[in-house]
Design goal:
Blueprint: H1 7-27, H2 29-35, H3 42-55, E1 61-64, E2 70-74, E3 78-79, H4 89-95, E4 103-104, E5 111-112, E6 116-125, E7 128-132, E8 153-155, E9 175-182, E10 190-191, E11 196-197, E12 203-211, E13 220-229, E14 236-245, E15 249-250, E16 261-270, E17 278-288, E18 306-313, E19 320-325, H5 346-353, H6 381-386, E20 391-396, E21 408-418, H7 436-440, H8 445-458, E22 474-486, E23 490-502, E24 536-537, E25 545-551, E26 554-560, H9 562-566, E27 577-585, E28 594-600, E29 603-610, E30 620-622, E31 628-629, H10 630-637, H11 649-653, E32 659-664, E33 670-679, E34 687-690, E35 693-696, E36 699-708, E37 714-724, E38 733-741, E39 760-763, H12 769-775, E40 780-782, E41 786-787, E42 790-791, E43 797-798, E44 822-825, E45 830-837, E46 842-849, H13 857-862, E47 863-865, E48 868-871, E49 884-892, E50 895-904
Parallel strand pairs: 24-25, 41-50
Antiparallel strand pairs: 1-2, 2-4, 3-6, 5-15, 6-7, 6-14, 8-9, 9-12, 10-11, 12-13, 13-21, 14-20, 16-17, 17-18, 18-21, 19-20, 22-23, 25-26, 26-37, 27-28, 27-38, 29-30, 29-31, 29-33, 32-33, 34-35, 36-37, 38-39, 40-44, 42-43, 44-48, 45-46, 45-49, 47-48, 49-50
Amino acid sequence: MRHIRTQRHWELAVAAMLAGFLLALAAAGTVFGRALESPVPPGEQEALAKTAAFNRRIFDMRLHYVGNVWMALSNFSQFGTADANSVALKDRTALKINYSPSFEFPAGTRNDYMFIGGFWFGGIVGNDTLVSRTVGGSSESGSDEINAFDSVTESSILTTSRYYDPVDTLAKAEQQYYCRYSDTLVGSATDQVDNRGHIPLGIEVSQTSYAWSQRLARNFVIIQLWIRNVSDHPISDFVLGIFYDADVWNDQGTTDGAADDISGFLSGAPSLFCPATRDSLNVAWVADNDGDPKGGQFPLNSTHGVIGIRFLNAPPNKGVSFNWWTFTWGPAKIGSGDPVGSPSGDRRTYYLMANQTIDYGQVYAAIDYSAEGWRRPMAAQCGNAAGADTRQMLSCGPLRAPIMPGDSVRFVFAVMAGDNFHRDPNPKEFDCKNPFEFFDKKDFRELSESAQWASWIYDTPGLDSDGDGYDGKYDLCNPETSIVVDPDSGPIIRVTYRDTIPIVGDLGPPPGPGGSFVDYGGLPDLMPPGAPPAPRPGDTLGVGALTFETRRSKIILRWDGRISETTRDGLSRRVLFEGYKLYISRVNLADRYSLLATWDKDDYRRYVWIEPDSIGEPGKWQTDGAVLTIERLREEAGNNSFDPNAWDSISCTSGGRCYVDSLIDTLGLAHERRSFFMPVGFNRGNVSIENGVEESNLIQRDSVGTWVSLAGDTLEYGFYHAELDSVNPSVGQWVAVTVFDFGNPKANRDPMESDPTKSAVFAVPIFSADVVKREGLKVAVYPNPYKIEYDAPGGYKTSYYAEGYEGDKVGGTPHSPMDRRIHFINLPDTATISIYTLDGDLVRTIEHRWPRPEGDAVAGILSTYSSKASWDLVTRNTQAAVSGIYIYRIDSKHGSQVGKFVIIK
């Protein structure tokens, strides 16, 4: 059963049907054109041109679905589907669903937190106050004030995505959508107050939205709007409003989800990395009034979460406004002129958008705040406080400077979600005259985490992206108090801070109430935190370098861990290095690599039992995120043989054996602490115990170095090698060393691992050129004799191509005569190969140069390694070589060598 909707929802449904009818008109445009046989009067030409333009409009609704929110976005300034089955078929097919999510959270639960939303654009043009919008207003039916003529395009940073484009440097997210729309096409929309047709502002909007799957970014979508003035007049006091009608419910339920929403404004929250300080958030939020518990608990399909919207960036402006209303009422300052209920007309709507007011939360709707300048509540507000069919708007502006013709301005915001807003599935009856107890039990932690990460990902704190020397603001954290005795004044308490935690990037803080935004002119980063840097391939071993050499059936890697193991995380300012992983693949694609070995530190996280609290939070096992080495744990225990593996989660949480020690609280008092320990990573060093047997690791840490950071910290790092033995010498391999960290569960940051494709080397298990030079090896040729087809040991026919000796392709690719190869190995890095017939006729010359010269297509195909080049059995006259005996001559700076091989066809 669907929503039991009011009249305006049927109007939206009709608007959606009209949109489909307009698409049909677009397809039939040529028919109507042929019906006009007589000349068109000049006065009607403009009207016909506008009608044709409307028939060419494109309506496209795409769904972001790579994260834990599924959010629908359109190419005509609307988000949310308004119950229509309007999401693009390819997105529904990708998810194997037969419905259109609007804003579903958590993904796959059919918990929907959005009916419809849209962007409102307002400004002053001459003496006119103008607003352009698609949805919202007094009737809240769809309008034709915003139009698009292009479909949504997609790009991705994922190499496995069909939308990946290595040339497109604009891709920043795993799923990225782009579209354009404008308000310049005048349709049938009317201003209901001034009784006139719609007057456009004259803007074109470029909209890009970004979504990721990482845990710290999976609960939000970032949307960036570039708004360009395409008119010939300035637009003054521009305001951007984000209108939304949430309607929180599970769409498989039997109740109306529109009638019991609550909303408000979250100004700030404790910092994830420095709890003693608060981060400014300014999030407009909406939730169900009780989370729809079932049977005294919150099942997965109950809407016990909360969604929010936050501005991340805007031009210099006068501040942020937040307003909410029902059909008949909304908070307003006395004498403000704010509309009662939904705004109608451009002037009234603009006034609401630019009012610079932060409405008090909906649960306080029945409280009389007239002493603070608010109009008195009506008697019916007790019902609205308990939950109602409300609408909300978060707006930013007016801008401090006009948008001149041809100029563009950028607004960026995030639409986000957080779980566990409701914690008590058996709440007391709501008292609208005393809502404070009710509200104190609501939990904004997960929503605030999403809001903080959205801001940090958009503009990374501590990163000077434009190179102007400014990298953002910092909080001082982790104070230490000491007493210093001054000879004159006596004891002085001195407070020093051990850490500085970045809080905003070089773009400056996001806009907030009171016009706190300052534009520092930096660049957005749109970059989730990454793993520590992996060792970089190089020719010689040095700081942070990875080198390799090859021998027959062997690949030997060596690397220096100084950069990987001492680089600090950009946000926490801590070294998060945990270990290395070793991979191998025939092709350099991330999803084709096979893991060979891991090496990581011997360290653990402590999980402590937290007793239930007084506001309904159940008891739970919790970690503070700290990673403790085995040496640190043994020092704490005062026992050099202390084994944290003896105190594991299985025995402890099942009511058995827990580790018990004392925890000193902030008052200096000792409390008994029950805990267990979880290994971080595999805890696999140079040796490991597998099934009770000690085994040597493929990755070996050979020695340890130290490095003193700029902060004066002495950090250790290692020198490593890995030797791959018994590798097929005829087949080249991509080998990669990646770095992974231990993450930070307290800050919702999963462990990160570097991309193997960015630190891979191509190695053929033959003697590499440096070994050839050092040991004076002779050139060898294989296969010799070369046969088109031969009998395999299993009694079937095979070929060198099928066995992987020819070309550089991977099985499954159709065979081509151009893929045939005779390989010359043990070459120096520079050599000339000359091939002759027995009569002395020159058949082919191959110039081997390593590294391969850029732009040399032949060398790119035939010189495939430092000590290897191949012949494709094509003569210098581009003919196929015939059967026979051939002579080859190798010339290099180290001398010459002559040999022969046979071709049998």
